[in-house]
Amino acid sequence: MRIVLLGPPGAGKGTQARRLADSTGMKHLSTGDILRAEVAAKSELGLLAKGFMDTGDLVPDSNIIAMIQQYIDDPAGVLLDGFPRTVVQAESLDNSLEEAGLPVDKVVHMSVDTDELVKRLSTRAICKNCQTPYNLESDPPAKAGVCDNCGGEVTVRDDDKPEAVLNRMKVYQELTAPVLDYYKSRGDVAEIIATGTPDSVFEKLSQAIGSGVASN
Ligand code: AP5
Ligand code: MG
User: Dihedral (C-alpha) 113, 9, 106, 36: value to the nearest 10 degrees?
Assistant: First the structure.
């Protein structure tokens, strides 16, 4: 299966994709996580991406499309988190999957109101090593600054500063909201309200995907 998780910054895509990958064995493909690893490694792509990411702008489509090609036909199935993020990326994904004879099985749109998104992002921290997300108020690591999952250092993302958050919301409306319309026009989008506890959101997400699978 190939499942696309769509939603604004802070909607919980990473939190839920990790859970879903753990419970299904599917590959979690987060373009944000891959890019942050490239930035940490100071690779050519990382050096290029950093300037865009720090201000909350998108990395150019051509770089992103080249970066994800190797992952999309993983036989375990793929959970796409943070990709596609522009209509150009969505069209490119369709073309690549068509060549491989594979469909997008389900698109899930996770919606959360803006005040809640801003609150979540202003209190988020992530592991520098494995990128597990935490919330410093509602879901902190057991030992301050240390990842429960791998023991790595838990820090605040540069793009969770207020100015970058505002720009990320604007960029989402301008460039990523049309991706939702792109998939809606094909009629294969499940809508979930991604508020409530992470456990309750996971239940809604599982139901949305389960019903999608049954109807496909
Ligand atoms: P990316 O890393 O994809 O960031 P994003 O889309 O802005 O999304 P976030 O990771 O901020 O939010 P999330 O939905 O994953 O929420 P999370 O689970 O962490 O992209 C970063 C940058 O990389 C982009 O700005 C761009 O520059 C570049 N980039 C990436 N992909 C690209 C692409 N395809 N094209 C071009 N450029 C690209 O949760 C957030 C917080 O909320 C956490 O603290 C969490 O603990 C908490 N939380 C989660 N669920 C709940 C809940 N139910 N209740 C309360 N709190 C919750
Ligand atoms: Mg994320």
Answer: -170
**Shortest CA distance to 184 belongs to which of 6, 11, 31?**
6
Q: Which CATH superfamily hosts domain 2-111+176-209?
A: P-loop containing nucleotide triphosphate hydrolases (3.40.50.300)
At 109, phi and psi to the nearest 5? -100, 120
pLDDT 10s digits, 190-206: 999 999 999 999 999 99
Which residues line the pocket of ligand 1, CB cutoff 6 A?
A: 7, 9-15, 31-32, 35, 52-53, 56-59, 64, 82-83, 85, 89, 120, 124, 133-135, 138-139, 159, 168, 197-198, 201
- Report CA Rg, the chain: 16
**What pTM was computed for the model?**
0.95
Listed in order, strand segments (DSSP E) in the chain are 2-6, 27-30, 78-81, 106-111, 124-127, 133-135, 154-155, 189-193
Q: What is the pLDDT of residues 112-149, one digit of tens each?
A: 999 999 999 999 999 999 999 999 998 999 999 999 99
Domain spans of the chain, in order of start: 2-111+176-209
Which of these, 152, 136, 183, 114, lies nearest to 33 by C-alpha position? 152
